[in-house]
Specification:
This protein has helices at 41-55, 78-82, 87-106, 122-129, 153-160, 165-174, 180-186, 198-210, 214-228, 232-247, 250-260; strands spanning 17-22, 25-30, 62-67, 111-115, 118-120, 132-136, 140-142, 178-179, 191-193. With 270 residues, it is of the alpha/beta class. It starts with 16 loop residues before the first strand and ends in a 10-residue tail after the last helix. Pfam families: ECH_1 (PF00378). Belongs to the enoyl-CoA hydratase/isomerase family.
Length: 270
């Protein structure tokens, strides 16, 4: 486990994405520190494949995404984008980015962003897409595309689903950095914590999540995102069915019995 006073160190390997499992928690590290972990096309492909692999791993109950080096993620690789001028390449880049974000949302395990340094553009989108996010109180987040003639349209999707409309538009139209404490106040992240305590805070969340039934985490996360786009009546109908199915699960019976019997539950994942 990395030292709790430092961001994850860059691995000497050339791997774009690193995975280290700690019990039921998968630690996934973006590993392009010299480029502030900017999301090249290949990096997005590797990260998506890594997450899909984790999604099939029944031993993992929670995922933490972090960045090597001085920052979390600076967004798309602008040098790579300017190396090409063809529509097909740009479509592939942004479709791959959308697939990555959808993979996180659809992953059965909850995903936590551990943010330090900067999280800008698609990096901010990544933070907003994760189910939970904690940041070093010196971290800064932004959607600065407007400053370089490239409006942050895909980051806008995740951003606008996390913060109030006026705040989202403020970030999108000005491109200015938002401090971690302000991001927490707006709801973009869960907490801004002292740098020395970031690792402990993230692991506290991760361990709390990982202690729950993986079956319940899966159906609960899926239902949360499904009901967001439904009307009030549709959402209640849908979640009533989800709870009915949940009550029929083995882990629901075990959890309720354990609570009534004042003992720790033994989850089966069913």
């Amino acid at each position: 486990m990395p030292d709790d006073s430092q961001p994850v160190a860059a691995n000497q390997d050339d791997a774009l994405v690193l995975r280290q499992d700690t019990g039921a928690i998968a630690r996934v590290t973006l590993n392009r520190p010299k480029a502030y972990n900017s999301l090249s096309l290949e990096m997005m492909r590797v990260l998506t494949a890594t997450l899909q692999e984790i999604g099939q791993d029944q031993a993992i109950r929670c995922v933490v995404i972090e960045g090597a080096g001085k920052g979390f993620c600076a967004g798309h690789d602008l040098k790579e984008l300017r190396s090409r001028t063809d529509r097909a390449f740009y479509e592939e880049v942004f479709e791959t980015c959308c697939q990555l974000m959808s993979t996180i949302t659809r992953l059965p395990q909850p995903v936590i962003a551990k943010v330090h340094g900067i999280a800008t553009a698609a990096g901010c989108q990544l933070v907003a897409t994760c189910d939970l996010a904690l940041a070093d109180d010196a971290a800064r987040l932004s959607t600065p595309g407007v400053n370089i003639g490239l409006f942050c349209s895909t980051p806008m999707v995740a951003l606008s689903r996390n913060v109030p409309r006026k705040r989202a538009m403020e970030m999108l139209l000005t491109g200015e950095m938002v401090s971690a404490p302000v991001a927490a106040e707006w709801g973009l992240i869960n907490q801004a914590v002292d740098h020395a305590g970031l690792e402990a805070a993230v692991m506290s969340y991760a361990e709390a999540v990982a202690s729950k039934s993986p079956h319940v985490l899966k159906i609960g996360k899926r239902a949360f995102y499904q009901q967001l786009d439904q009307s009030l009546d549709e959402a209640y109908r849908h979640t009533a069915q989800v709870m009915t199915e949940n009550m029929l699960a083995r882990d629901a019976a075990e959890g309720i019995d354990a609570f009534l019997e004042k003992r720790e539950p033994q989850w089966t994942g069913e």
